[in-house]
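Session log. Operator J.P. requested a structure for one protein chain; no other inputs attached. Running the standard single-chain path with token output.
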Amino acid sequence: MIELKNVTKRYDSLTAVDDVSFSVKSGEYFALLGPNGAGKTTIVKMLLDFTRPTSGSLSLSGIPSTLAECRQSIGYLAENHHIPPSLSGWQYLLRCAELLDIGRPEATDQCRHIVELIGMQGREDAKAGTYSKGMIQRLGIGAALMGAPKLLILDEPTSGLDPIGIREIRQLLESLKGHGMTIFLNSHLLSEVEKICDTAAIINRGKLLVKDAISAIVKDGETLEDMFVRLVKG
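Structure written below.
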């Protein structure tokens, strides 16, 4: 599904990503982990063609990330995304469908399905300004699901949430496992990543430290957080 080959990204004298290679299989729940400034967001930006690598290549399903065709199969939730407070959840989802050029009958059907999937029945007509942070995040994931993408890229989907909101997002992501999507997750909340994801890659200062099944890289008696600290601190 996703393949990075010898990807390097430099900004003047700063090397944000340094010769990184890894792949993510179709249907896999994958976490990209690292401390602040490690290069995680830069990799996401390159996958989405917001910026391009200095060298190396990125592809999705064999299609180079630089081609618009590649992004037709991606749903994306940005960190701290914003929904106009005057729009209802239903109006917001319809706007997203319009941006994807989905006809109204199909858009209506997709909105109904997504509202049910994200557990917002009965609140879809309320204004977004009345929603909790957790509801905003669920609605953002719902918008990313519009058009039935093959790949879902989520950047810190639990950022700023209370424990109840974190649990709701985890349960939502777990419920998507039977839908055949690949999920690429950026998160600092390692305890949640360990519950959701199959595999993980850890980068630090732009370099890939490890990429494998979480069960293979976590030693006996360790948590994912323990392993993360051990690798990053060296």
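Operator note: The chain has a mean pLDDT of 92.
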